[in-house]
Amino acid sequence: MGKITNSALGTQNPMDPTMETVEVCALVAAVLFFLAVLRRSTSPAVQVVRDPAVAHSLLNETADAFTNRPNGGLLTALATWIPGPERVDTISTVAYGSHWRSLRSNLTAGFINPSRIAALAPLQRDAVQDLVAGLSSGPGPGGEVVVMREHLDRAIFALAARMCFGDGLDESCVRAMQRVMDDMTQAMDDTVSFDGSTLGRITHWRQLRRLLGLFVPLGELVRPLIAAARERKAAATDSRSRQAYVDSLVDLRVPNDVDTTKRALGDDEILNLVAEFLATNWGVIVACIEWTLASLVVHPEVQKKLRRKIDEAVAGDAEAVLSEKGLAGIPYLRAVVLESLRMHPPSPFVTRGVHDDLAAAPSGATGRLRKRIVFMVRDIGRHESAWTDPGQFRPERFLPGGEAEDVSPMPGRNEIRMMPFGGGRRFCPGSSLALLQARLFLAALLQNFELAPPSCGVDMTETGDFNNLMKKPLRVRVTPRTLP
Ligand code: HEM
After folding, report:
1. What pLDDT, on a 0 to 100 scale, did the predictor assign at position 41?
2. Is 321:444 a contact under the CB 8 Å cutoff?
3. SS3 call for 266
4. Which of 100, 396, 142, 435 lies closest to 284, judged by CA?
5. Residue 314 Cα, ligand 1 centroid: separation in angstroms?
6. Per-residue pLDDT reduced to its tens digit, 366-418
7. Closest Cα to residue 219, out of 171, 255, 266?
8. Residue 425 Cα to ligand 1 middle (Å)
9. Ligand 1 centroid, distance to 297 Cα (angstroms)
10. Of 428, 432, 435, 469, best ligand 1 pocket probe by most atoms within 8 Å of the beta carbon
């Protein structure tokens, strides 16, 4: 008797590969359909702005509607990393209002006001000199090819950490913090497409978990320093002796959400604010300097002119360019930095969210996000309507008589032609400090070294991530100069 098969009996073999494939395909189709519906129902509308005139009209003429970043995005995820109802907001994440004003004015009026910036000069000078010493130790007379970002990262992170925790901060602690913050930056870049939607949470859960998990090692390093700042506050009679950013946060009182009283910040809040400070005083400044150096290497005539201007300003006093006053005498340096910021903004996009019911939820922009607006900072700085030959690196346009003589990198009330520091009410509060530090490092590098391209040349491709870095870190042939 022949073998009786299931098909002969009129039934399907449960292991039939054709059947299995059909079922899997149907299942995948159903999941994709479900995800598509979920995405449609959870993702807000997105408006992309590339035109400077449109950016100006949205951020200035209708400023009240554009005071918050989108609730539900990556920054909100960072603000809600603690389980439970409480948010641990930073200046970037908190909704526009009294809490935001307290945090922001603590940074601007309390920490980086002009007299405080003057007091930071010794820290800045040490960091600049460390960078120059590090680069001088290697090259012989023929020069040496170095990966510039490694040197910049080291020097600028140390400066940010000491501004944050005081100049006595131990070197091993600085380096341990740099490693964690480096991991955090990479985790943020991996999460750059996260839009805050439910679907985004599902598809990015692994990256989000990694990012939020990094607050544990950061906390292990930072919590003892917060405790030390609290002890200093209890012991010190004179607040001027406690000049680090962390001290200002320990002193700060913010409005209570529930009544009209004020309260101190908790350790978790300070930890988040410290992470924000380290991030904003590091990666974007490194990116700004790296892009500017790359442009100077690609345009040797600009490098030569800038060095000549720096030498004239130094006029026998090698330390002259290590101060804000000395830098004021080199307008061409400012023009070079602005031209670099226009073409290669370290933060390539700025977002705003239009929310429902913001008034009912003043402490966290918790109203439903109706619209996400993305200002493409890079496109705005290269827009044909605002710039002649926008793709050409031409710092002279920012000098007197140039087409951009009056253009400021700060958001303009009358017009926007570039917005490397954002615009409207939430523009970057650290822009003056950032420009000062970028110029200090650049002046010292130009004063002390000739910079030439390596044999492989310079690749100006951008990453386009949160921090818009050079895709291939800048390699430069560095040759020490004999100072005039
Ligand atoms: C070259 C360096 C820097 C660049 C390119 C840069 C760029 C930006 C941009 C584009 C924004 C978003 C603005 C907006 O949404 O309209 C921003 C926000 C911010 N930046 Fe910077 N920044 C730099 C340095 C700094 C420094 C040195 C600090 C601190 C001292 C800082 C602190 C902040 C803070 C706290 C915010 C959030 C402001 C708010 O929401 O009110 N930044 N920055």
Report:
1. 52
2. yes
3. coil
4. 435
5. 31
6. 566 778 899 999 999 999 999 999 999 999 999 999 999 999 888 777 889 99
7. 266
8. 12
9. 27
10. 428
